[in-house]
Amino acid sequence: MNWGFERGLIYSRKEDIHGVLGGQQQGGIITPVRAAVVIAITGEKGIGHGYDDRELPDKTFEYFGAGRFGPMQLTDRNKGLFEHSRNGKSLLLFRDEKRKGLRFLGEYVCDGFEWRDAPDENNTVRTAIVFKLVPLDKINDAVDVGTKSSDLELQHPKLRLDELRKLAQQASKPSVPGKTKLGTVYERSQIVRAYVLARANGMCEFDKKPAPFSREDGEPYLEPHHIERLSDGGPDAPKSIIALCPNCHRRAHSGADRAAFKAELVDLMRAIEQSSILTFQQK
Known about the structure:
Layout: E1 10-11, H1 13-18, E2 29-30, E3 37-42, E4 54-55, E5 61-64, H2 76-82, E6 90-96, E7 102-119, E8 125-135, H3 136-144, H4 150-155, H5 161-171, H6 185-200, E9 223-226, E10 241-244, H7 246-254, H8 258-281
Parallel strand pairs: 3-6
Antiparallel strand pairs: 1-7, 2-3, 4-5, 5-8, 6-7, 7-8, 9-10
């Protein structure tokens, strides 16, 4: 959800952001109270304050947390950015074009952070928080193309559905320094996808009909659909993704009744998740 912003266009911070969404008038991280969104602003001006943001060759973004002097803390705005997915909030990135305004770079997902020694505004070396931001469309592309539920089974041939679910729940959490990671955000998203397809067991989870055809490897062809892209801890979470046949998936995206259809899917996913929880508790 881009909140009405179009990638590449320039907007006024005062009128288009604060005038519509509210939030703090100063600083590079804006966490409006009345809107489910976090705004991050980058730009050359931040270098003078000790912020050395940069886009990497793979299009991920290193974004320095808030804090002009002394060690940064994972509190307030920094915590709001880090936990944006867990709190169901979109993360929008803008670049300050000085007197022109703010250019919208797109919607991102925070995939953890690292502690790094870096100078503050007084050029004194301190511990800084550097967030890893991943473009949301890259995550969706990585999950939607070429991933099969059997991929994970090749690594864990005897993996049970409840064990796969635990991996999927763990994968939907953003990575934190000092804790074991399952890999990149793309790999973790694929683990969630693998669980969803295994949970469906070859049946469209909406119309309860078998997959209309099989892949080349014989696996039933179903498509994971993100009902809510950002929810509870990451770009993908088992409770927000449903396995659909191609026909139902197109209906979810392009049908005239897609709003009503989404409401049906939300209710259905609650029932699926509750059933899964009860099933695993009994084992």
